[in-house]
Amino acid sequence: MPDDHTGAGDPDRTLALLWRHVDDEPRRRGPRPSRSVDEVVKAATVLADDSGLGAVTMRAVAGRVGVAPMSLYTYVPGRSELLDLMVDAAYLEMPRPPWRSRSWRRRVTAVAEANRALLEDHPWLAEVGTLSRPPLGPGQLAKYEHELAAFDGTGLGDVETDAALAFVLGFVQNHARAAEASRRARQESALDDMQWWEANAPLLARVVDERAYPRATRIGSAAGAAQGSAHDPESAWTFGLARVLDGLAALVDRRVRSRGDRPARP
Question: Considering the entire predicted model, what is its pTM?
Fold first, then answer.
């Protein structure tokens, strides 16, 4: 199976498809296609949502669309280009309400929460490396423009603003991967986190030497008891996002002080 990352397909063909400029190319002889690129992308997205990226093969997508496997190449050159189209379509569907809050911290929190919701709706997106070579389609650019605006008034420079956004999105992606792994573990073991912890805690208490691992036993036990599991995605989200915002706040405050401006509204 090819690598699941964006930007791996033919750049010219991919951009033409992302912006739906396929009509600019000379039409091949033969009957007009009975389906659309949008229908192909929707079918592939449903497969990925239901069964993960591994289920997205050209044959499977063709079957869902209702065309012969070779006919699918009439719409998209291959799986790599299809993946870019799927990602961009998901981005295009994201809500982008106007930024009304004067607090940059609230705006950036909303960016993080919107991306978390996107990855919960489409868990396969967390498997795709999109930060280094994002699909340069209308969905990606609309998303990027909207999210950059959340940093307006912070005093950050252009390069810093781009890096700050990537920092936030990187945290969200890593959280989504961990949350999805936790969900799969619960599903495969038929135990929820509390049941798993209750089943394993007595055994750990018998085999782990507290003298050899004093911090691990004390802190691990306290965290496990507090969270009801070794890892609680909700607690990790709340704690981690607050630390991301605190880090950005230190940078914003430093930039404001260096220019002698009034403090940015947190």
Answer: 0.86
